[in-house]
Amino acid sequence: MKNNKGITLIALVVTIIVLLILAGVSIAMLTGDNGILGRAKEASTQTAVTNARDEISMKVAECVTEYFAVSYAGANNTTYNASAETDTLDKYILNELKKLQLKDVNVTLKGAELNNATAPTGTTGDVLKIESKNDTSVYVTSTWSEGGKLSQWDNSKLTK
Length: 160
Fold this sequence. Notes:
The chain has a five-stranded antiparallel sheet, with helices on one face. A hairpin with a 3-residue loop joins strand 4 and strand 5. The protein has one domain (about 10-150). The chain contains three helices and five strands, in the order H-H-H-E-E-E-E-E. It is rod-shaped and about 105 Å long. About 45% of the residues lie in helices and about 15% in strands. It starts with 8 loop residues before the first helix and ends in a 10-residue tail after the last strand. It has helices at about 10-30, 35-75, 90-100; strands at about 105-110, 110-115, 125-130, 140-145, 150. Helix 2 (about 35-75) runs antiparallel to helix 3.
């Protein structure tokens, strides 16, 4: 008998086919709508909107606290200046919200960009909307009430 060393052509072809199948499965899992990259992008979009929502909620609460600290307790170490043009709580909150540096999202109040100088004054019933710049189908909304009160955030459009 001969002592053959090496692999057969059939073993080589089977190995290549198995490697191609594994590569195809890996690429499919990486890309596509439900792939790792797609889910990572969606998670990034949702995180940006959620972070902006939390930052706006915190800024509104901070403004309300400062407004009442100056108005009723006479505090003078806050950013609120009762003699400035921001004499109402709503105007003060909106001016402070305009200063926020929110990346990857658009914030609108009753159809106008909040960082636009002509943004409307928040009045009862206006809708505050935080929308992703990357995917406009991902957003959250809240209803503005007098005194900067925000209703419960509607998170139904936060996921696709």
